Amino acid sequence: MTKKEQNRESTVSLSKEQIIEKLTTTVIGRNLSLFDSVESTNLVAKEHIQRELVDGEVLLALEQTAGKGRLGREWTSSKGKALTMSIVLKPLVEKPYLLTQLTAAALAAALSPLADFGIKWPNDLLLNNKKVAGILTETVYSGSTLEAVIIGVGINVNQDASDFPDSILTKASSLKMELGSPLDPNAIAAAFLNSFEVMYQQYLQTKDPSLFLEICREKSLIIGKTVWIVNGKQKKKARVKDIGTDGELKIIDDMTGMEEALYGGEISIRGIDGYI
Ligand code: BTN
């Protein structure tokens, strides 16, 4: 048996029924589809948003052939070894850009029984300084009206080192690799969706993001550190001061000493000597 075949055998299969069985939600994931192979669950969600998809619907795939990350990057994962899903939200939520951080907080909270995960603002979940999950939030507008928000979440669950290109092994990993044994992806999916619903409902009702932003601050891997702020081809050194009340990253430019606020967008953060 090859190493790849052994790896495949050690993983528990993703099953729609097993996820639904573990859900405690009323809206999120109550409509759930599991595809064998799609280009990207976010793309499928966008294509079907107008007619078929309802609020809280979740689309999962065993495999994505053109998974997307932030900033136009690729998101790759070996078939059946990662969780790749999109949550469709239809109500008119205030400040949809905050949902990436809500999702990061919900993920960190859901996975906290396994380990202490860190958040790299705004959308990365790290364990032992390696990225194990990422979030891609996309909005769908009809004219100037927000029709839906699609929260794409990729969680590296049961990949082995051989499943990652060598070039990213220094900065990416899986829960299995970091924790030492395979995990049940159904339990992880359900725990995340349960945690997401609690935070999302609370945000819809109160319009107050402070609860999830506080989790993002507590779990932040960059507050208090000097990092590279990368914006396209430009990069500058800055010290990260805080995450503000609107989810913005408050930084102090190393050169000018001036305080600035960064709002997600095209920005990415890099550690001075490594990934973070
Ligand atoms: C990132 O870290 O840059 C974001 C990664 C988001 C990946 C997920 S996987 C499910 C959904 N479908 C996609 O094509 N991307 C998101």
Number of helices: 7
- Total number of distinct structural domains: 2
Class derived from helix and strand content: alpha+beta
CATH superfamily of the largest domain: Bira Bifunctional Protein, Domain 2
Mean pLDDT: 93
CATH-level-2 architecture of the largest domain: 2-Layer Sandwich
Q: How much strand?
A: 25-35%
The strand line-up of the biggest sheet is 1-2-3-7-6-5-4
Radius of gyration: 18 Å
What is the 3D form? globular
What ligands are attached or bound here? biotin
- CATH class of the largest domain reads Alpha Beta
Number of strands: 12
Cα separation of the termini? 37 Å
Helix content: 25-40%
Largest sheet report: 7 strands, mixed
Order of helices and strands: HHEHEEHEEEEHHHEEEEE
* Poorly predicted tracts of residues: 1-9
Q: What is the CATH topology classification name of the largest domain? A: BirA Bifunctional Protein, domain 2
How would you summarize this macromolecular structure in one to three sentences?
The protein is built from 7 helices and 12 strands. The chain is an alpha+beta fold and 276 residues long.
